[in-house]
Amino acid sequence: MRGKVKVSRPVRYNICRGGKGFDTKILKKVIALRKKDDQERMEEDLILDTYLHALGMIESPPEG
Length: 64
Prior knowledge:
Elements: H1 9-17, H2 24-34, H3 38-54
Helix pairs in contact: 1-2
């Protein structure tokens, strides 16, 4: 699933213009997440949770 991801015209508009109250930064992250497969996202989430737990930012250790 690498390469270009089809994004609808209104979403592209909101990313480029920051229109209609959407958070441009979050929309860019959503598009980046769509480019990754489920396994890759799960691995990144597990690593992030491990770091957050080690820093005391979350209570429970990551499961996995």
